[in-house]
Design a protein that fits this description.
Blueprint: E1 4-8, H1 12-24, E2 28-32, H2 35-43, E3 50-53, H3 62-71, E4 80-84, H4 89-98, E5 102-105, H5 110-120
Parallel strand pairs: 1-2, 1-3, 3-4, 4-5
Length: 123
């Protein structure tokens, strides 16, 4: 069974690019357009092994999504990586306090993305 990764990003082009890289490497992907959409998908039974989320999104940003995601007992230890243009230490600290496991700054290469996914994803 393939490792399933939830991609949360309001940019369709970013979701498509991350989806392409991950599925080409054998991962299964679930996509959400913002934090609220991601929580709705999880509440409707989507099973995931890792999350890659943007920070700045409408409806619910990445920090609030991570806080609410971590409240669910099933996802307390699920890896969550922020994939964002934000590189400020204060934002990274906010992400860490919310429960982010790692941080990737855009732009990035497919190899960088896969290295981080291999580090965190359970297979």
């Amino acid at each position: 069974m393939a490792t399933t990764i939830l991609i949360v990003d309001d940019s369709i082009s970013m979701r498509q690019m991350v989806n392409f890289v991950l599925t080409a490497s054998g991962y299964s992907v679930v996509q959400a357009v913002h934090g609220k959409d991601a929580l709705d998908k999880l509440n409707n039974g989507a099973k995931i092994d890792m999350v890659i989320t943007d920070l700045n999104m409408p409806e619910m940003d990445g920090i609030e999504f991570i806080k609410q995601f971590r409240r669910h007992p099933s996802y307390k230890f699920t890896p969550v990586v922020m994939l964002t243009t934000e590189s400020k230490d204060s934002k990274k600290q906010d992400g860490k306090q919310a429960g982010a496991s790692g941080w990737i700054v855009k732009p990035f290469t497919p190899e960088q993305l896969l290295d981080v996914v291999k580090k965190f994803a359970r297979r």
